[in-house]
Specification:
This protein has about 210 residues and is an alpha/beta fold. The chain has 7 helices and 7 strands. It has helices spanning about 5-20, 45-55, 70-80, 90-100, 125-135, 145-150, 180-205, and strands at about 25, 35-40, 60-65, 80-85, 105-110, 140-145, 165-170. The chain has a 7-stranded mixed sheet, with helices on both faces. The mean pLDDT is about 95.
Length: about 210
């Protein structure tokens, strides 16, 4: 890991532990190699939380316009963020993600595309299924709890107390959907991601006993 990434990761983990009592579940599902990490998205905190909670280096996508700001651009570039336009059919972004996955990296992609307005999950876009099938890699579903209350889109500054948890689920293999036609496979894989995140939420809310599904 780059020194700046390692320092930022350690600082983020310290803040989440001391201010929010961070609890991480599901590291039994950890494996090395390429994968898409797919969390629900409710907060500005979500990217650094995933970086702090997952035990190896993670890579992120960020709006291209953010890189035009000198200090912010320098910072996020050194924190493993890569610029994307976010527009449909952005072939350069797809190529970038596939190249990262070919290098056996873990790429964080928020499958809803935007932060939730009310803390509830929105529609999972089929693009995540397309990427997983194109790059022949699994998807790791993740449920994040407590970040919405700490720092949602309506808050200018974060609330510096609360409880935050991050639950990693069983990897979803893209090979399970190979018998379907391409469009159907992508849609079904997106539905499976949503079902998995919802199952992780239920597991956590019911007491977090045993291994997350």
């Amino acid at each position: 890991m780059k020194l700046i990434y390692l320092c930022a990761r350690s600082l983020a983990k310290l803040i989440f532990l001391t201010a929010y009592g961070l609890k991480v579940y599901g590291l039994e599902h950890f494996f090395r190699g390429a994968a898409i990490i797919a969390p629900n998205h409710t907060s500005y905190y979500d990217p650094p939380l995933i970086g702090a909670a997952w035990p190896e280096e993670t890579f992120f996508l960020a709006r291209k316009s953010l890189f035009n700001k000198f200090f912010l651009g320098f910072l996020i570039r050194n924190l493993n963020a890569y610029p994307v336009t976010g527009t449909a059919g952005d072939l350069s972004s797809i190529k970038l993600i596939c190249n990262l996955l070919k290098e056996d990296k873990k790429v964080v992609i928020f499958p809803e595309g935007i932060r939730s307005f009310n803390g509830q999950m929105t529609t999972i876009k089929s693009g995540i299924g397309m990427l997983a099938m194109k790059c022949e890699c699994p998807i790791i579903p993740v449920y994040i709890d407590g970040c919405y209350e700490a720092w949602n889109r309506s808050r200018r500054f974060p609330r510096m107390w609360g409880n935050i948890a991050c639950v990693f689920g069983s990897p979803i293999s893209s090979t399970r959907f190979l018998q379907l036609d391409k469009k159907t496979a992508q849609e079904e894989m997106a539905k499976e991601v949503k079902r998995s995140i919802e199952a992780l939420k239920t597991w956590y809310k019911n007491g977090a006993k045993g291994t997350p599904p």
